[in-house]
């Protein structure tokens, strides 16, 4: 397939598929085998074996993911955090320094502040919307800069073009977590990012039934990361590969509907007297709306908002709503919401949450595939007197 001549929607269906088809099967079967015939491979990492990420299910996913991200190569992993940790442990060595965006996902923040220091790795958090401040944080041992396309949970948009330029100028590896956007909204590799990370548990699979991750980007870096994953053992099971493969085929139609519904929901929330603030990059009121409109094809399915009355008001809304489910994940068919302060960011101290703008009453909402009219009506009842 000629990658540059084919739309995303067509790549999602056809890229990476084996030719000829296995046994004529239109849907790639699950290869539930740990071991394969040895064909004389001289490099250990090329030996056909399930832990080495090279079963037919893995290879098909790698081709599809690279194509839809507009990248040279891809690798699937057992979870999004397996992708993030393996990539960081490949790019960084003992004594190295990382620049990271402030306000990152709590799991990533915990890795950077709680685990990597034990390995001799240090991190400085920077304002990713203020490129002028990054130079002051550079050290001779700085090796990479790490950001999120849309921050979790506040949906801020970094100055992403400047991140790529800054990394190139200073010899850094540019890394970005694209989970909230997915390649339907934004493809960072096409902007020049070296490594793109996806928690495929979320929008990429889209059905809330597996954990998976992906690393895509420059072929030389992906090869190094694969070798790290091979040793660490963060391999995705073939049946989970099959489910992710299936989920990807509907990624575009799902995310585009979720984006349309999220904009309608965010607009409704912004107009409601019970709501104090709403963060959604598709709203003109969003601080980085112009940047998001210039970079993204659509704005995604995530909305963050605070109610007047804080945590108590949020809990009251949760108890009265019928459609959204209080749960920690996102990107699935059902609308999910949660208070990050008591779930995904509870490992941050109250002071750290306050500095990041994560109040006790902040609600993170992942808009699902329900009818937007039904969601808005349900929200109206839940927010009513």
Question: Can you characterise this structure?
Answer:
By secondary structure, the chain is α/β, with parallel strands linked by helices. The protein has 2 domains: 3-248, 3-Layer(aba) Sandwich (Aspartate Aminotransferase, domain 2); 252-382, Aspartate Aminotransferase, domain 1 (Alpha-Beta Complex), CATH 3.90.1150.10. The chain contains 15 helices and 12 strands. The strands form 2 sheets. The chain has a 7-stranded mixed beta sheet with strand order 1-7-6-5-4-2-3, sandwiched between helices. The protein is globular, with a radius of gyration of 21 Å.
CATH superfamily of the largest domain: Type I PLP-dependent aspartate aminotransferase-like (Major domain)
Oligomer: single chain
Number of domains: 2
Number of helices: 15
Order of H and E elements: HHEHEHEHEHEHHEEHHHEHEHEEHEH
Q: Architecture of the largest domain, CATH level 2? A: 3-Layer(aba) Sandwich
**Structural class from helices and strands?**
alpha/beta
Q: Tell me the Rg in angstroms.
A: 21 Å
What topology, given as strand order, has the largest sheet? Answer: 1-7-6-5-4-2-3
Distance between the termini: 57 Å
Unreliable stretches covering 5 or more consecutive residues: none
CATH topology type of the largest domain: Aspartate Aminotransferase, domain 2
Top-tier CATH class of the largest domain = Alpha Beta
In what range is the share of β-strand residues? 15-25%
Mean pLDDT: 95
* Anisotropy-based shape: globular
Amount of helix: 25-40%
Q: Count all strands and give the number.
A: 12
Q: What composes the largest sheet?
A: 7 strands, mixed
């Amino acid at each position: 397939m000629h990658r540059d001549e084919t739309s995303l929607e067509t790549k999602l269906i056809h890229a990476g598929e084996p030719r000829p088809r296995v046994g004529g099967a239109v849907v790639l079967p699950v290869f539930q085998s740990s071991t394969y015939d040895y064909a004389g491979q001289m490099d250990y990492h090329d030996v056909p074996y399930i832990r080495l990420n090279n079963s037919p299910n893995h290879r098909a996913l790698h081709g599809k993911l690279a194509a839809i991200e507009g990248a040279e190569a891809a690798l699937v992993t057992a979870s999004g955090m397996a992708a993030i940790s393996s990539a960081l442990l490949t790019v960084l060595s003992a004594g190295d320094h990382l620049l990271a965006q402030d306000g990152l996902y709590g799991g990533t923040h915990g890795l950077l502040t709680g685990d990597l220091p034990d390995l001799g790795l240090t991190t400085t958090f920077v304002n990713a919307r203020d490129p002028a401040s990054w130079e002051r944080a550079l050290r001779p041992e700085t090796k990479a800069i790490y950001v999120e396309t849309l921050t979790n949970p506040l949906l801020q948009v970094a100055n992403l073009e400047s991140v790529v330029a800054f990394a190139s100028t200073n010899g850094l590896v540019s890394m970005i977590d694209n989970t909230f956007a997915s390649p339907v909204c934004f493809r960072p590799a096409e902007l020049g990012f070296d490594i793109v990370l996806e928690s495929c548990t979320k929008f990429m699979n889209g059905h809330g039934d597996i954990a998976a991750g992906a690393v895509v980007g420059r072929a030389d870096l992906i090869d190094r990361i694969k070798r790290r994953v091979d040793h660490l053992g963060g391999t995705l099971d073939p049946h989970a590969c099959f489910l992710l493969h299936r989920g990807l085929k509907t990624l575009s139609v799902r995310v585009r509907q979720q984006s349309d519904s999220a904009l309608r929901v965010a607009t409704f929330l912004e107009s409601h007297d019970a709501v104090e603030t709403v963060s959604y990059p598709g709203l003109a009121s969003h601080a980085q709306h112009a940047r998001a409109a210039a970079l993204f094809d659509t704005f995604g399915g995530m909305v963050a908002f605070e109610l007047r009355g804080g945590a108590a008001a949020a809990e009251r809304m949760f108890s009265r709503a019928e459609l959204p489910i209080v749960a920690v994940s996102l990107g699935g068919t059902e609308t999910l919401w949660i208070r990050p302060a008591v779930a995904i960011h509870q490992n941050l101290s109250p002071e750290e949450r306050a500095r990041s703008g994560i109040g006790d009453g902040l609600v993170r909402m992942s808009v699902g595939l329900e009818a937007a009219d039904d969601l808005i009506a349900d929200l109206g009842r839940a927010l009513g007197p």
